[in-house]
Design brief:
mainly beta, five-stranded mixed beta sheet, 7 helices, 38 strands, 55% strand
Length: 689
């Protein structure tokens, strides 16, 4: 970790400017945090008492890192797992506050304030959002977001706000990039407005051979936004679509008992040279907002999302498992924003109703030319009422509170055909019909002792409903030597969290520290012992997150963070053990330097991730995934309408991996997913006014 501090030349620094109300005594105006419900219910610090951070489009453009997941990993408390071959962020996992393999289902991802997690284990595909389409990213840590957004907001909420053309002069931007691993990328953007009408369009296409055999990626995506905006409200329509073709190379095996270490002898090889996964996704959102009176705004919007995915696995060159998945989600989310001074103190309230209906169908067959032996059909409907408000108790103190009541209804069926190829020796999963009420609640407080010193904290309760893949995994019917029918039932996971922290500004230094403690019941987890998903005995997640920035000179800024994360089993057969795939220590540091105005700018970032347990190693007896430190740098600039950059990732060519699966039978044996060494990317483009 000394390398991090040597590169910055200062203590870890970065982070968050103090959020919340600005106030003066003696009856002066109190300004509460913005809640921009037209785009997002989080807005600029809309949930008081939480640890939040914002990544701007300028920071994304200047980052030496090339993927959205890598950019997110620069934030305090964020860990990533490269489950695939590390190509453009495809199949990457983003983890907030230590959930390991189940992180995709415990981090809720929003696009423009709307839920975007798919009802499967993949959760959200971070490679599907063009980087040039992002206006900003809002990260809210912990359970508090569950009131506004519902189930799954346990580790936190990541809200991706895309660009629109409101109040922008007509302009366009084109760029191309090429680099290591035969990577080629093209981006194009255009936006502008004419009177009340505005349009924005962002596209991207990328192709790369990838670091390993059979890790090629071909992906294209588009984000479009059109809206009509007046002083009385707006009408908007947003489209997001992507198409992805990805090779699946499998892991590299390490087994000291037989002298095998493919991380050394064949690091870039493929265990599965023919496996692949294709995905197509489309999302359409239509909405209208209306300002009925000063301080009263209503928003009515809805969306339709469809994702299809085809994956085929091979053995000795012949297909043995084909999985064809279709997932559709329709939603309607009316809400109301009220700003009032009716009680003598400024207050803001957001209240609404969320309705989501999801249909998941999955055919499993020997290959795509054979009849399926399992057809899974799962439907889930959630309907919820919620309200969240913030009030200035005093000019220096803000209070927030909120509650959500949600009805979850699930219907699951399995159609089994033993006569289909590869269908013998299994059994049909038992049907499930289930309904339940769950609630989320939160209360937060921020008190500013001085304009430069603030204390904050919150308590919150959240929940997570099992997704379709987890239910299918629970209904795995095979039990050697005789098949045993099971059902799709898993209990809903619940969480209770408390957090407290401090924000400080000392001239050019801004810093935040917070401690959180989270107690979970019925955490959903894959058990290697049973080969199914189960509900765990109680678990405990806790940690400390530090972040700061230091403006050394008008042209030089240091930033960084240091996080301690623990997640442990507290009861049951693994009591006292660490939950796998979570680094206890992570740190980031960076330097931003405008060497010569905007003509030459330089950025360097360093990320440290401590050692972590292998997936499947709940017994904590297998080898650890080693710690690693990565250094990325970028130099670039602009001249008139042209811009350029040269980026180097993994400057010191660290041969690392951050995801691996332990054998359940052989001590010391595991499969690892190695990541690229040093890579280079050159980029050039033009702004067209």
């Amino acid at each position: 970790m000394g390398l991090i501090f040597r590169l910055t030349g200062a203590a870890i620094a970065l982070g968050l400017a103090a959020q919340g109300a600005q106030a003066q005594d003696n009856g002066a105006t109190v300004v509460l945090p913005t809640i921009d419900v037209g785009v997002t219910r989080i807005g600029n610090g809309g949930i008081t008492g939480t640890s939040t951070s914002v990544i701007t489009s300028e920071e994304i453009a200047r980052s030496p890192r090339q993927t959205l997941t890598e950019i997110l990993s620069e934030q305090a408390g964020v860990q990533i797992q490269h489950v695939g071959a590390g190509v453009n962020g495809a199949r990457d996992v983003v983890d907030l506050r230590g959930f390991g393999a189940s992180a995709p289902s415990n981090v809720l991802v929003l696009v423009n304030g709307r839920r975007f997690n798919d009802f499967d284990l993949q959760g959200f595909d971070y490679s599907s959002i063009p980087l040039n389409a992002i206006e900003r990213i809002e990260v809210t840590r912990g359970n508090s977001g569950a009131v506004l957004y519902g189930d799954g907001a346990v580790g936190g909420v990541i809200n991706i706000v895309t660009k629109n053309g409101v109040n922008r002069s007509p302009s366009a931007r084109v760029e191309t990039a090429f680099g290591s691993l035969r990577t080629k990328e093209a981006r194009a953007s255009a936006s502008g407005s004419s009177g009340p009408l505005s349009v924005s369009l962002n596209t991207i296409g990328i192709t790369t051979d990838g670091y390993r055999e059979n890790s090629k990626l071909h992906q294209k995506g588009v984000n479009g936004d059109i809206r009509y905006t007046t002083n009385e409200g707006s009408i908007y329509f947003n489209v997001l679509a992507d198409d992805q073709k990805l090779g699946l190379p499998g892991g590299r095996t390490v087994d000291p008992s037989i002298g095998l270490n493919q991380l050394v002898t064949d690091r870039t090889g493929a265990a599965t040279p023919n496996d692949y996964s294709n995905k197509q996704g489309q999302n359409y959102t239509l909405g209208v907002s209306r300002i009925f009176a000063p301080g009263i705004e209503a928003i009515l919007d809805g969306s339709y999302r469809r994702k299809t995915q085809q994956a085929e696995l091979f053995f000795n060159g012949s297909p043995y498992n084909g999985v064809d998945t279709k997932l559709t989600t329709a939603s309607v989310t009316p809400r109301l924003k009220i700003e009032t001074d009716a009680l003598g103190r400024p207050a803001k309230v957001t209240t609404g109703f969320d309705y989501y209906h999801t249909a998941f169908t999955q055919d499993r067959s020997q290959d795509f030319n054979s009849a399926p032996y399992h057809i899974y059909d799962i439907k889930q409907t959630t309907a919820a009422f919620y309200g969240n408000g913030t009030v200035a108790l005093r000019p220096d103190t803000d209070l927030t509170a909120g509650v959500r009541y949600q009805r979850n209804t699930i219907s699951a069926r399995d159609t089994y055909d033993a006569s289909a190829p590869s269908g013998s020796g299994d059994a049909q999963g038992l049907p499930l019909d289930k309904s339940e009420w769950k609630y989320a609640a939160q209360g937060g407080l921020e008190h500013r002792i001085t304009p430069d010193l603030a204390l904050f904290g919150h308590v919150a309760h959240s929940f997570r409903v099992p997704n379709a893949d987890e239910r299918v995994g629970q209904a795995v019917a095979f039990n050697f030597p005789a098949p045993t029918p099971t059902n799709f039932d898993l209990r809903t996971q619940t969480s209770n969290e408390v957090e407290g922290g401090v924000r400080v500004t000392l001239g050019p230094l801004k810093w935040q520290t917070s401690y959180y403690d989270m107690r979970l019941h019925d955490e959903i987890f894959y058990s290697p012992a049973t080969g199914t998903n189960i509900n765990l005995d109680p678990t405990h997640h806790y940690g400390v997150e530090n972040a700061a920035t230091l403006q050394v000179l008008p042209t030089v800024r240091l930033r960084g963070n240091l996080t301690y994360t623990r997640a442990v089993f507290t009861d049951g057969q693994f009591a006292g053990n660490d939950i796998p795939l979570i680094s206890k220590w992570t740190a980031n540091a960076g330097l931003t330097w405008n060497i010569w105005d905007k003509y030459v700018v330089y950025d360097v970032t360093v990320r440290y991730a401590g050692q972590r347990r292998l997936d499947n190693d709940s017994t904590n007896v297998q080898p650890l995934i080693p710690a690693h430190t990565l250094v990325d740098m970028r130099i670039g600039g602009e001249y008139k309408n042209a811009f350029w950059s040269l980026s180097v990732q993994n400057l010191f060519n660290d041969m690392y991996f951050d995801y691996g699966i332990a054998s359940t039978a052989t001590l010391g044996r595991y499969n690892a997913y190695p990541q690229p060494g040093r890579t280079v990317m050159a980029r050039v483009g033009f702004n067209l006014p």
